[in-house]
Amino acid sequence: DARFQFTERGRRSVIADLKDPDGKEAVLSLVEKADVVLEGMRPGVMERLGLGPEPCLVRNSALVYGRMTGWGQSGPLSQAVGHDINYIGIAGVLHSIGTSQAPVPPLNLVGDFGGGAMLLALGVMAALLEARQSGKGQVVDAAMVDGSLSLMAAVLGRYAAGEWKDQRQCNLLDGGAHFYGTYATSDGLFVAVGAIEPRFYQALLKGLGLDNCAMPAQHDRQAWPAMRERFSRIFRLNTRDHWCRVFEGTEACVSPVLSLGELAAHPHIAQRSSFVAVDGLMHPAPSPRFSRTPSEIAGPPVGRGVGGSLALADWGFALDDSRLKGLAWKGEAGSIPSEPEAAVSPQA
Fold first, then answer.
1. What is the mean pLDDT of the chain?
2. CB–CB of 16/327 below 8 Å?
3. Residue ranges of the alpha helices (H) in the chain?
4. What pLDDT, in 10s, does the model give residues 97-143?
5. How many CA atoms lie within 13 A of 212 on its CB side?
6. Is residue 181 within 8 Å of residue 98, measured between CB atoms?
7. In terms of CB atoms within 10 Å, which of 190, 195, 294, 313 comes out highest?
8. How do residues 283-303 score in pLDDT, each as one tens digit?
């Protein structure tokens, strides 16, 4: 159901058969007016379709051509299949996250979204800024492996300096430190603790009823396992909400670990309107926030081909333009017309 594809909200689209000559020509006609082309095919596919960077840049020399793959456009794995877990697997990310017994996939946030889509977006914006100065476009090759490695830069630096052990749950940020991790509470819920700085750590000890002077040094790694067990015993004595009240207003960096169903009701998220109701469903609000040109959700997620006629009109195409005969879009009833002329008019 398109309503639940939250990442598709506000989009408008037309449909093209890229293996059909008319479809290919229609896409190239769109390219002539485009600032950016994004594609996520396996390397070589767009070239075989006649829609690779070269013909597109011939049509539009200022075009930014963004390419999204897992492995990149070159290398021995470029033609291999894969998913987020595979890309972060060879980037060292997966090895570094999880318990001491086994790696744990961090959803698909690191490869697909962080190291992939967001860095592609950043690269495309940088290329657009450069194109405005030079008048020339270029190709942006975004590989999830490369992006994931970039996200690991700080950890790799610490590893090179001998400050990061090449094993899980024994480092500062991977759950090894007793002052940076999660703890179960008496009600089966969890709190998150991030008391890295000395005064934050002192506030944490005070809230837990521990005497700072009687404790091992905060960064005594030999004491970390015993301190983690001690913290665990204390946190299990009371509920999550109890500990949140204890640490409220302090610098201990203790927060609840909220379930997905609890997010919208949290006072901070509610006050900032971080969720927005769209057709009765709670969507994450646009982010980041702009002071002069605030973002708004343009509309709910829609299926493929919806709004295509309006998009083409905005781009300055007449719906009976012969160059568009390889495209299709959905009318108000949701059906795809056999000919573009049968679609809804821009005024509808």
1. 93
2. yes
3. 21-31, 45-48, 53-59, 84-89, 93-96, 119-134, 144-151, 153-160, 198-207, 224-235, 240-247, 267-271, 308-314
4. 999 999 999 999 999 999 999 999 999 999 999 999 999 999 999 99
5. 11
6. no
7. 195
8. 999 999 999 999 999 889 988
Catalytic residue (choose from 17, 22, 35, 83): 83
Tokens linked to 273:
């309107």
Q: How confident is the model at residue 1 (pLDDT cuts 50, 70, 90)?
A: confident
The 3-state DSSP class for residue 138 equals strand
Catalytic entry in 112, 141, 146, 174? 112
Tokens of 303: 């299926």
Tokens of 252: 């201990």
Handedness of CA 74, 137, 133, 148 (dihedral sign): negative
Q: Is 83 marked active-site?
A: yes
Instruction: Find the radius of gyration of the CA atoms of the chain.
Output: 26
Class of residue 309 by CB neighbours under 10 A (exposed 0-12, middle 13-18, buried 19+): buried
Take residue 86 and report the two structure tokens written for it. Answer: 């595979």
Q: How far apart are alpha carbons 66 and 117 in whole angstroms?
A: 10
What pLDDT, in 10s, does the model give residues 61-70? Answer: 999 999 999 9
What is the end-to-end Cα distance of the chain in Å, rounded?
24
Residue 344: pLDDT over 60: no
Residue 253: which of 199, 214, 210 has the closest Cα? 199
pLDDT at 342 > cutoff 70 = no
β-bridge mates for residue 254, sequence order: 193
257 with 182: CB under 8 angstroms? yes
| Residue pair 117/82 in contact by the 8 Å Cβ criterion | no
Alpha-carbon distance of 301 to 303, in angstroms, equals 7
pLDDT at 302: 87
Q: Which amino acid is at 181?
A: G
For CA atoms 316, 319, 320, 324, the dihedral sign is: positive
Q: Report pTM.
A: 0.89
Helices (H) and strands (E) in the chain, counts: 13, 10
